[in-house]
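Changelog note: in this version the structure field was regenerated for every chain. One regenerated record is shown below for reference.
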Amino acid sequence: MIKLLENFEFCKKCTKCCTKTEMILTLNDLKRLKKVSEEFYTYSNGFYRLKNVNGKCIFLENNICKIYELRPMGCRAYPLVYDERRGVILDDDCPLKTIPKKELLKGVKELLIALKEIERDYGYKVNWDLFRRSVNSIF
C-alpha cells in the first residue's frame, strides 16, 4: 500500500522517470507537443511514445523538463502507473515511497484521463475493474 502524507515536497526531482522512458502518448499529447517540436516521438509496440536521446527523455535538459506545462498525461500522473497485472501502482523505479493525499488524487484523475484516451486512440482495453480495485486499495 502507498503511504500517504498531508504535507510533503512531492517530487524529489531525481529524473529517474525521465530515464529510458517508454511513455505512451495520447493523440492529444501529440497535438499539444507538436507546437514545440516535430521530432519528439517514436512508434513502437503499437503506440506513439516519447523519444529518448542518450537514454533520457528528449525534453529533459539539465535535469529540468523543458515542456513541463505541456507534459504528456502519463507524466502528469506519474509516479502512478497502470500495470496490467497489478492495476494502479507507484512505479517501482520511483524512489518516492510516500505521496501526499492531494497529489495522489490528482495522479489518479490524470491516469484515468490518460487511460481513457489510450483506449480511444489505440483501441487498447483497460481492465476497469482492476483499476477501481487497485485505486480503492490505495485509499
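Spot check on this record: The mean pLDDT is 90. The chain has one domain: 15-138.
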